[in-house]
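Lab notebook, bench 4. We co-purified these components, and the gel suggests they stay together. Before we commit to crystallization screens, I want a quick structural picture of the whole thing.
Request: model the full complex, all chains together.
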Amino acid sequence: MNNVSPTAPIGDSHQDHKPSPLSVVLKRMWQLRMGVFGFLLVLLLIGSAIFAPVVATHDPLEQDIISRLTPPSFLEGGDSTYLLGTDQLGRDLFSRIVYGARISLMIGLSAVLVSMVIGVLLGLAAGYFGGKVDAVVDFLVNAMLAFPFILLAMTLVIVLGASMENIILALGLSNWPIFARVTRIETMKLREQEFVLAAIAQGLSHVRIVLKHILSNLAAPILVIATVEIARAIIRETFLSFLGLGIQPPTPSWGLMLAEGRDYMLTVWWLSTLPGFAIFLAALGINLVGDALRDLLDPRMRKG
Amino acid sequence: MRTYIFYKLLHAVGVAFIVSMVSFILLFYTADPASMLLPETADDADIAAFEKDLGLDQPLIVQYGNWLARIVFEGDFGNSWVAKVPASSLIGVALWPTLKLALIAQFIATIVAIPLGMVSAVKRYSLIDNITTFIVLVGQAMPLFWLGIMLMIVFGVWLQWLPTSGSETWVHLILPAVTLASFTLPLNMRLVRSGMLEVLSQDYVRTARAKGVPRSGVLMKHAFRNAAIPLVTVTGVQFGALLGGAVVTETVFAWPGLGRLAVESIQVGDFPVVQGVVLILSAFTIVANLVADIGAAWIDPRIRFE
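Here is the predicted assembly.
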């Protein structure tokens, strides 16, 4: 640990080290700008998904064997009709990436919805009723977290069969504990608040208290987690598809495209690199929006 | 402390029990050993005899009991349906490569995260702080298998500095370990940074400074020790996620560990092996959580009394 001090030239006094107001303002602006940047990336993702037929220059399934493995137009040997080049079957990579946004977004949103519904319901029950209910939910959460997540999702896909709905179900069913955990803790805190105690004293029904007084106060933290989890669900779907356990060919899924491109890694590097970059940008944008939402909705959770 | 450990131990056993039950049920409903193992010419009588032989005609609960007893008392996970050898021997061979990969990746992530996280907390908004923020942002959005493939392209194919697959020497370990380390690094850095920030504003840190303890002493003894608690807990809790990341990494780099074994077995429907790997990885996660809980209680006595 001694290697820390030399690399950490602490100012005159680290304890009283206060960043200058200017740098704080710059930091806030930077954060805001990152939020805007993330928002633009998310708009790009949603836009590509909705307007895929308009944005795409080719049919994503149309094969053109003669011009297979054409490099992107900005590289040597590129062809301007194929913006990002073509894949091993001569399909236009750009159009496939654009259509891939549909798959990723749909799976990301639906899978998170599934985990959110399960997790929030269990978390509410645990936090509100406490006692035995709480113990059972806590146990389930711990058991779920002990499973290797990705193997659980893979097994579920095998059990259910590889289709879009089943991938959503598998990802959703294996990722609810995070929602249950946060909901449980927040509900426990809220339950001790005076306005909730007052509602209980008034004799309001449990359902009404939970819906009106507790759930409404949970919306912000749940929304923030859901945003970040969408990004993670997208990455996980691409990995399942990468292994051949997700979206089946010839549907354009980013993970599947990456897997197909891997076979040409030695010579045709862009084939696996570009779909991966799409995944990265989508996840980055969603995460940045999540950070911005957290700052906006709950200043207490602001980091740094 | 003893009561605390006992309680945690009981909890861990309970969780392990649930995990074993779920993976048994998953296998029970998924697997059709007769169609996997018998020739296509087998008639109903053959199938019935075969299922009786494997004990598949008994009630579910009895099957579960027998299965669990064999695993716990004999370390017998059943035979691989494809390789026709005990699953435990396949798992045994693949165990060490995975542990080696996971531990080294965690080690790399920790030694990078601690100094960077500390500096960025002490010197907020400095260049290093911004670099840390940047690494966290990029790291969280990076699909692990994509990073692995790009590292392979750059260092294996273009520069030809490092081998892209195989596991014979320590050199083979570099790319997979760096890839997996990038998986836990963002979270570790964020934890160290936020932990330090919180601790540095505490009264006892100011008191220590006021009574003339040298700066490095305050940072290491008063601040870091307390800031490390969440790191210890989360490292334990995240160990399962790390093993999940190892599954991804092993697949990309053809690393001969449990993850690749599980993926290959899932793809050919070799369920006894899948089940064995799931159980072993879960067991490691449960033990890691237990160690982390006890470790945190040892560093911070307050936790024991909660």
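The radius of gyration of chain B is 24 Å. Worth comparing against the SEC data before the next meeting. The mean pLDDT of chain B is 83.
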